Amino acid sequence: MLLEFVAEASLSDPAFRKSLPPGFAREEFDRVQARATLRDLLQRLSTKSNFEAILDRFVDEFISACPPLLRGQTAQMAALGRLTIDSKVGARAGLIFRIRTEPESTSVDCYGRKITFPIHARDAVRFALSNSEFVVRELPADLDDAGKLALVRRLIREGLVVAFAT
């Protein structure tokens, strides 16, 4: 990630594109000035870099590169018909995701995909992905029982949530 900061600074600030002065490898090279230049560049790097944008890009790349580890997904799919409002479910262990909210929708970035849900499901999606164990009935939001079941089934199909055997 540090390379991202330096790369961005190099593109936007000419001071980062200067080469080392002639004679830098010689024993008699004056390192005092070189140290002061480095200190100045590090200060510029820390104050001028857009930390939020670089970190967001790093997070996006990390999440998109995480392959799905969907152990037992076939059994999860087979059990969807037995899911009830009293079923115990939870976020898949080790799940790495990012939730984004738009004016009309909520999306989950996971496994290199963007999975979109209606905006009214935002709180329920966030709850489901933040809890390792809960009962379907406990989902927040203005969803009736059928809506809660539909949402949990979708989350299971997408590999984000698992149902526990009862």
Task: Describe the secondary-structure layout.
Layout: H1 2-12, H2 31-48, H3 51-65, H4 73-78, E1 88-91, E2 98-101, E3 105-110, E4 113-118, H5 122-130, E5 134-135, H6 145-157, E6 161-163
Please summarize what this structure is.
With 166 residues, the chain is an alpha+beta fold. It contains 6 helices and 6 strands; from the N terminus they run ααααββββαβαβ.
Task: Note down, in words, how this protein is organized.
The protein has 6 helices and 6 strands, in the order ααααββββαβαβ. It is α+β, with helices and mostly antiparallel strands. The protein is elongated, with a radius of gyration of 24 Å. The two termini are 44 Å apart.
Query: Strands of the largest sheet, in order across it?
Result: 5-1-6
Order of helices and strands: HHHHEEEEHEHE
Shape descriptor reads elongated
The number of helical segments is 6
For the largest beta-sheet, the strand count, sense and barrel status come to:
3 strands, antiparallel
Quote the average pLDDT.
Answer: 86
Identify low-pLDDT runs.
none
Query: Got a strand count?
Result: 6
Strand content: 15-25%
Roughly how much helix do the residues carry, as a percent range?
Answer: 40-55%
Q: What is the first-to-last residue Cα distance?
A: 44 Å
Cα-atom Rg, whole angstroms?
24 Å
- The SS-based structural class is alpha+beta
Descriptive labels:
43% helix, alpha+beta, 6 helices, three-stranded antiparallel sheet, single chain, 166 residues, 6 strands
